Amino acid sequence: MAATVIALLTNVAQAQQSSNPAAPSVSIPNFWNPRARGERVEAPQTGRAIRFMTDDEFPPLHFAGPDGAPTGFAVELARAVCERLTVMCTVQARRFDTLLDALADKQGDVVAAAVPLTPGLRARFLATRPYFRWPARFIARKDRSLPDPSATTLAGRSVGLVEGSAHEAYLKAFFPNATRKTFTDLSAAQSALKRGEVEYLFADGLSLALWLNGQEAENCCAYSGGNYLENRYFGEGIGFVTRTEDAALARALDDALQRVWDDGKYAELYLRFFPVSPF
To answer: Strand 57-58 vs strand 62-64: parallel, antiparallel, or unpaired?
Structure first.
């Protein structure tokens, strides 16, 4: 696990050094409704800093920076939100599987990490609107000149999938005539695509983005077609999570996220941490 995290951090750091903020190839998602804007919502005054909690082993969303301090897209977005709210905030790293219990125990005020928004989570906590989602994507070898995926073009073509994944279920439902080839894990499926043993690979767009931008892929492959965001298969995404009694804070965070989008800071952070966009 540690070696994988270090490798991902290396990929992200290399990508950040080479990224061009003006590059038109980076697609920035917009999760905000322009008609939903209202009056500015202020953060509740508690007399102390808002305590954000995160994990430091999931780049590029949250990881330990060169100085050991938490950073990543979710973490820097939290800091940008605090600036818009003109409040003091702290960010503390904890083990991922302890974050929600720590929030319930009032050891922090907000979770800023890749905790999926699910009915189970909403039964215990409040959450903002999603600021990131998990798109599913197809990728293919660059030298094959394959058509963009559709129910028609994938008929009879081989598609690599992780066995038992939501992506396998989605392909069965919406691309029934594709030839499915399953693998035990994503790494095996990626290697098969690189060797040309399958024509396409369908999987989580963020994981694919990290692989496409890394040395292991050797520039073999690229996205094919668009993204797929069906909630029933791929979830609602992630947002900032608070306790149910902190509804005023949740509303303030939602409003600040809208303003971070409006003033361009969201795009700036997205380009910094996603030089290859999963969208």
So the answer is: antiparallel
